[in-house]
Amino acid sequence: MIGRLNHVAIAVPDLAAAVAQYRDTLGASVRPPQDEPDHGVTVVFIDLPNTKVELLHPLGDNSPIRGFLDKNPSGGIHHICYEVDDILAARDRLKAQGARVLGDGEPKIGAHGKPVLFLHPKDFTGTLVELEQA
Q1: Pairing state of beta strands 2-11 and 76-84?
Q2: Which of 47, 81, 83, 101 could form an SS bridge with 130, CB 3.0 to 4.6 Å?
Q3: pLDDT tens for residues 47-96?
Q4: Residue ranges of domains in the chain, CATH in brackets
Q5: Tell me: the pLDDT tens digits for 2-48?
């Protein structure tokens, strides 16, 4: 059901410092910051030959990333994202197997302009999983 790894998302307390580290220290190709008000985050994508890293920074006080950073002030891995061919079929199959879909269970448009869903980390060995329709 799941396809390729789309990205690994890392919550960061200082977006400019994280961008500089990836760009200047690691020599990575870094895209410009992109505000995602519907998700309460600013994202920066780091392009790698085989996947992406997504840097997440809170956008506003109600950002879900704010809570993550309150618990993890240095930042850290927030979620992993896998591609699926049909997000509704994947959702229905996962729910039938007992997995919990976060929110209202309906896909939302993610940072790539494609439908996404998040799966409860307690159902996936402590890892928040994002599914993105390929």
Answers
A1: antiparallel
A2: 81
A3: 999 999 999 999 988 899 999 999 999 999 999 999 999 999 999 999 99
A4: 2-133 (3.10.180.10)
A5: 999 999 999 999 999 999 999 999 999 999 999 999 899 999 999 99
Tokens encoding 110: 């993610």
Give the type of residue at 22: Y
Cα 34 to Cα 76: distance, rounded to the nearest angstrom: 19
* C-alpha span between 66 and 29 (Å, rounded): 26
Whole-model pTM over 0.90: yes
Decide: 132 and 88 in contact? Cβ < 8 Å.
Answer: no
What amino acid positions are annotated as catalytic residues? 130
Q: Cβ(8)–Cβ(45) under 8 Å?
A: no
Rounded CA separation 24/134 (Å): 31
- If DSSP states are collapsed to H, E and C, what string results for 30-90? ECCCEEECCCCEEEEEEECCCCEEEEEEECCCCCHHHHHHHHCCCCEEEEEEEEECCHHHH
